[in-house]
Amino acid sequence: YPSEFLVQKITEDNQIPVHLHVSVSLQYVAGLKGSALVEFFHGNIAEVENEELRHLMWSSVLFYKTPNVEVMACVLLSTKAIYFLLDDSFVHADEHQSDFWNKENSECEDSSFHLSCCFVLKLNDLQSVNVGLFDQYFRITGHSADHIVTCLTRDSYNTHTFIQQLMAVLSLLARTPSPEPVDKDFYSEFGSKNTGKMENYELIHSSRVKFIYPNEEEIGDLAFLVAEKMDGLTNLPSLNILLYVLAFQVNHVEGSAQNTSSLQPKTLILTSSDLFLFDEDYISYPLPEFAKEPPKRDKYQLVDGRRIRDLDRVLMGYQTYPQALTFVFDDVQDQDLMQNLTLDHFAE
């Protein structure tokens, strides 16, 4: 029986982002309020009777085995596991996921019965959590390739809240204490003898789950990569990354009945002189311990880059969150002048 405050908080968080479309089954979940939501969790999702629902979050998720399929999920954190209630489209989007799904039930004709698949990651199987740059996303890693999931929150507040709740829940786990640490000298403590560079900042929780945060070198590596893409036109020391944000590029779909637009996930990077769009691999890096070979694609792949001095005007939509921005450049000869971006959030 959760407290009234917790029930109210979970109800407030139970809202699908307006720009993302989900299946009927997830729309049903998003319509639940208060105690009905808690009863739904215990009746349909929870695996043991005495686990408590502590946090709810809507987020796009990526799985390690299907890095190109981003799917909407309702993420439920309990005192025993993390549950990912997935959109139906995920199951049909990739044949590798057929083992997730009971095909006998997927052809159900009763319109009042909606089936959704749920991926479960037990807290006892959790090994590490990698937080992405500027808290735009985080990756949860278990003991195998099947147990690696990235949540693309595109929102530092949601990332921070989930991490705090996860740490609180992990503190309840009864695990054997870690062995006493061996005294290390300064160099072995703060540097790696193999690579010669500083490791990412790690926080080892009392439950022995690692929380890994990016260090300053990651920004430096990104700045170097951006400078490479600029063909050496800019002096690297003066190159500053002003903004890193996970966004969507809007591709207008012509000829469709609703005249709709499709959203393509992109990483937007703004420097003091240029605006870049990258395709980023959010799931494969850093490499998991069991990985036998590097990923098939680089972490960052340049899609488009324009000079700020060629920016003619910025058109802003009048709708509320998320904000749509159209950047119009005057340096393009044989392409569309309109670069449409729908951002989940943008600095004031």
From TrEMBL:
UniProt keyword terms in alphabetical order = Cytoplasm
Gene Ontology MF: a single term: kinesin binding
User: What's a BP term from Gene Ontology annotated to this protein?
Assistant: regulation of protein localization
This protein's GO CC annotations = endosome membrane
Looking up InterPro entries in the UniProt record yields: PH_domain-containing_M2, PH_NISCH_C, PH_PLEKHM2
Localization (cell): Cytoplasm
Q: Where in the numbering of this chain does the Nischarin C-terminal PH domain appear?
A: 241-347
Identify the main location: cytoplasm
Q: Which residues form the PLEKHM2 PH domain?
A: 114-178
Designated name of the protein: NISCH protein
| Species of provenance | Onychorhynchus coronatus
What does UniProt list as this organism's lineage? Eukaryota, Metazoa, Chordata, Craniata, Vertebrata
